[in-house]
Amino acid sequence: MASKLLDIKTLKARLSALPREKCRIVFTNGCFDILHAGHIRYLAEAKNAGDYLVVGLNSDRSVRTIKGDRRPLIPQNQRAEVLSGLASVDYIIFFDEPDPYQLITEISPDVLVKGGDWSKSTIIGADVVEATGGQVLRIPFEYDISTSQIIQKIVERYGNNEETDEKGT
Length: 169
Known about the structure:
single chain; about 170 residues; alpha/beta; 5 strands
């Protein structure tokens, strides 16, 4: 499988080679630290909004800035590798900033997708996408599953190390 992880120059070249009048570029972003069913559903729905899905992936430095020093749990290259295995994801690009505004400006997607937990007025880059005639789409948030909940469950179950198997996992 060829890597879907690209730098900005290569991504822009690939996107500009597409027949833009015949296809819609969708952009979403996130940390995707522990990939779970909510992420899979979200990314599949985002892909359904267009033809090519670009995922802006917060770099390790970016995740630490917004989530704190204990995150990410999974290094950026491994997170990108896991996302690359999803059929719904066409391209992945890291960004170091706390938000993807500059990336959205450079890519100029046709559709910007965020979770329903974001109000439209707080979606970063919505102004850029709408100014070029694009669409901002909010996908309903699944409140019963999140990376933070998974981490909490692990801490509750294994925090004392009494319940690990003989290999310590």
